[in-house]
TrEMBL record:
Superkingdom in the source lineage: Bacteria
Family: Belongs to the carbohydrate kinase PfkB family.
Name used for this protein in its record: 5-dehydro-2-deoxygluconokinase
GO molecular function term, any single one: 5-dehydro-2-deoxygluconokinase activity
């Protein structure tokens, strides 16, 4: 398996009216979502063998999630069906398209929070070329303990990726989220997050400072997403800054997950940091020009053509003294 993603899943309903709040008449377009789910789809669209570990209810929405994953080419062997559980729903409004309003409709014991360690055997856990998960997976339920167990068993094997993905509404308080982030970082080989997430996890929103803090914690690759300012990718020996790709934003949700799919592909295929950053940033821009997340993920051919048309040189160099 090239990519094994673990964590949140949902049925996402995207309002199609830009500038409208939930108080106004809206029509919605249905897709699937949840950050690790989107990354699994993005990786599959880029040609990776991709699988998802999550849980859905034994309900019509669970049927829909499984059908869409299979259409995208994501393996569903480890997607657990929970009797009596309800598949989560997410509503997205575009009052501000760049910063959509997101409302989570999740039961306290949503199926994706009830995953046990028996769902995945050690061979699958250790042999995946990229294991991808998010800190939000540690927010609730049995899945939190299971994930920490799996990360410990994985033993920071390359490439064990933790997306900081700190969704405040999923946590009882900021301190709990920060503590979980520290636990996950200590078990990760690669960490990716935006400036706000880095500040919550390591105490600074400065890109270089956050990268330094992550590397000091034993991470081999730190990726700091800078939104409209591009991205920073840093190892102990190299630092690459990727400029932004200008685009008319239709829905800002999903850009980071598109970047994640490219990061996974780049790690599997041994791409240099500059290529990962350039294509990752282009993937994020391309997805924000579309309405949904999973359905918007590009193929590699489509992405390369888009990135070449918007090519802006990255800057790279040795680490700072």
């Amino acid at each position: 398996m090239d990519l094994l993603a673990i964590g949140r899943v949902s049925v996402d309903l995207y309002a199609q009216e830009a500038g409208a709040t939930f108080l106004e008449p809206q029509t919605f377009l249905k897709s699937i979502g949840g950050s690790p789910t989107n990354v699994a789809v993005a990786g599959a669209r880029l040609g990776l063998t991709s699988a998802l570990v999550t849980g859905v209810g034994e309900d019509p929405l669970g049927d829909y999630v499984l059908a869409r994953l299979e259409e995208f080419g994501v393996r569903t062997d480890a997607v657990v069906r929970r009797t009596g559980g309800r598949t989560p729903v997410v509503l997205v409004a575009l009052e501000d398209p760049a910063e959509p309003t997101i409302t989570f409709l999740r039961d306290p014991e949503a199926p994706d929070t009830t995953i046990g360690s028996e769902t995945l055997d050690d061979d699958a856990l250790r042999s995946a070329k990229v294991l991808w998960t998010s800190v939000s997976t540690l927010a609730a339920g049995a899945t939190a303990d299971t994930l920490l167990h799996w990360l410990d068993r994985r033993a920071r094997r390359p490439h064990t990726v933790v997306d900081l993905d700190l969704r405040p509404t999923l946590w009882p308080d900021a301190a709990s989220a920060a503590a979980a982030a520290e636990q996950a970082i200590a078990l990760a080989d690669v960490v990716v997050g935006n400036r706000r997430e880095c500040e919550a996890a390591v105490g600074t929103a400065d890109p270089d400072g956050a990268a330094d803090a992550l590397l000091d914690r034993g991470v081999s690759l730190a990726v700091v997403k800078l939104g409209a300012d591009g991205a920073l990718l840093a190892t102990a020996d190299e630092r690459v800054r990727v400029p932004p790709v200008p685009v008319d934003v239709r829905c800002g949700s999903g850009a980071g997950d598109a970047f994640g799919g490219v990061l996974a592909a780049g790690l599997v295929r041994g791409w240099p940091l500059e290529r990962i950053g350039r294509l990752g940033n282009a993937a994020g821009a391309l997805v924000t020009s579309r309405l949904t997340c999973a359905d918007a993920m590009p193929t590699l051919t489509e992405l390369e053509a888009f990135a070449d048309a918007a090519l802006v040189p990255a800057t790279s160099g040795d680490v700072r003294a």
